[in-house]
Every structure is written in C-alpha cells, then in structure tokens.
C-alpha cells in the first residue's frame, strides 16, 4: 500500500523534508494499493538525483531547483527510506527491485508535465543508488559531500545530537554491508565518536566511487560543499547542464541570489556563506585537535583500503 499525501508546491517549499515530522498534519491522505496505481515507463520520466553524505549543502541544492515549469526538488522523501529498509531485508531481491522501481516511478512524477523532478534522498538511501540509476536509465546524479574536516566539524558542532546521528548512520550502513574498512565490530566499538563519523563518511565515499566507476562521468558528477559555495554560479550552470535543463545566465543568477543560497536550509532564517563560515569556525576551533587527528587517521584508512578522498568526475 502507498500513502498519498496532497502537498501543494508551497507545502514542499516550506517543509524541510518530505516526512510526517515536517509536513502539516491536516493534509488530505489516501492509501492506495501499489498495483492499482498506473505508473509510466521509466524511460519517459525526466528524473535526476542529488546524492550526498550529510551536512554538505544538499538541501540547499534541492531548494534551488524549485523552478516552476522547469524543475522541482524533492527533499528526502521518506518513501525512499522505507524502500531501502524493505529492499535490504527482502528475501526475493528480484521482486523487491520491481517494487522499488514502482515506488520510484510514482515519486518521480512531476508537478507539471514540463518539469524535471530532482530527488534528494536521505544519505542512508545511497546504498540503493545503483538500483535507482539502473531502473531509470536516463537519470543522472550529482554526488556532493563535505570535505572530511568540515564534516567532522559539523558533527562536533551539533554535540550529542550530531554524534548520535553519526553513530546511527554508521550502524545502518554497517547493517546493510556497506562498511568494509578492515575493522571488526569490536574494533569499531573502541573508536571515538568522530572516528565512527569518519568511518561512515568513508563508506559513503566508497559508494560514490563505485557509482562513478559503474555509470561514468556522463551520468555522474561530483562536487564538495566548499567548492559549491566558492563558485556557486559555475556550479549551478554545470548542474543545469548535467540535468539537461540548460538554464540561461539570468536564471542561474536568480538561483544563486535567491533564498536557497541565502537562508538556512533547515530553519529558513537569513544565512549566507559568511554566516556558514562563522558557525563552522566555532566548532573547528574548539575541536581542532581531535578533528585533525581523526582526519589524518581516516586518510590512512582510505589509503589502505583504496577509497578516494578526492572523487573523480568533478562538476567543476
């Protein structure tokens, strides 16, 4: 069964993510059997992805592509998290793949026939990204991450909430068999919170590395959050080409000067690049020694197991 929620465009604009936690409680809902819903063929759906590893401006990008009659960014639709959990535990992977494909096609339907749907899943969904790109052969993906020291600073800045998030993400990746860094469970148990955060980050880099190798630079591009914020106009121009939107310079400038780049992605308050840098520096100063040591350790781990710290197929 699939839960359909009537959420107009303005609801999507105001909701941080597409989940019950963030959507208004009074929205009209209908529960319909998956087999009763007609879905289009995947080849006809203009849908692309923003894949990320957390705290790297991915929500900013999904908000930026809210361009009426051109594109719509969907922010962490919970149905893909449900699909990931279902697929991971399903004994019949062939049937599970079929169901995931149906759900993906339903989700990808545009608000307007002229629009391209751009889906930004939760980072825990990245384990299914290869399936998504297989099921939708015309889709493309941007892979975005924060440089490891910046990512670790974000975890540290959020204190117990950030550290708990990192451990939960790591635990889920480990359960799905996506963490292979040469450590056993006992060794991971002895690692610090930031080491676990770095291990999860490395696991995501490994997923991204495999996607690049499998699908190539024509369908996959990569960027880090600092490059995006340093060169937003170039980045958004190249993203529009990746997604085959071909936006002109005026449209790109409107995106870069708009609320997506100048307000907090989670809270909606004014928040520009200087504000981000100021918020980040406070955590990095307080935890600088730990961040430096863990980043060095993670670099050695990556070298030992063959994970790229700097991903190929750069957007810029």
Characterization of this structure:
By secondary structure, the chain is an alpha/beta fold. It has a single domain (2-305), classed as Rossmann fold (3-Layer(aba) Sandwich). Helices cover 52% and strands 11% of the residues. It has 15 helices and 7 strands. The strands form 2 sheets. The protein has a 5-stranded parallel β-sheet, sandwiched between helices. It has a two-stranded antiparallel ribbon with strand order 1-2. Helix 6 packs across helix 9 (193-215). It is globular, with a radius of gyration of 19 Å. The termini are far apart. The mean pLDDT is 92.
Topology readout:
Blueprint: E1 2-5, H1 9-14, E2 29-32, E3 47-52, H2 58-64, E4 71-75, H3 78-89, H4 93-107, E5 116-120, H5 129-135, E6 141-145, H6 148-157, H7 159-175, H8 185-189, H9 193-215, E7 220-224, H10 225-230, H11 232-242, H12 249-257, H13 259-262, H14 273-286, H15 288-305
Parallel strand pairs: 3-5, 3-6, 4-5, 6-7
Antiparallel strand pairs: 1-2
Number of strands: 7
CATH topology: Rossmann fold
Radius of gyration: 19 Å
Tell me, what's the shape? globular
Q: What is the CATH architecture assignment?
A: 3-Layer(aba) Sandwich
Largest sheet, in brief, is:
5 strands, parallel
- Measured distance between first and last alpha carbons: 42 Å
Secondary-structure element order, as H and E?
EHEEHEHHEHEHHHHEHHHHHH
Number of domains: 1
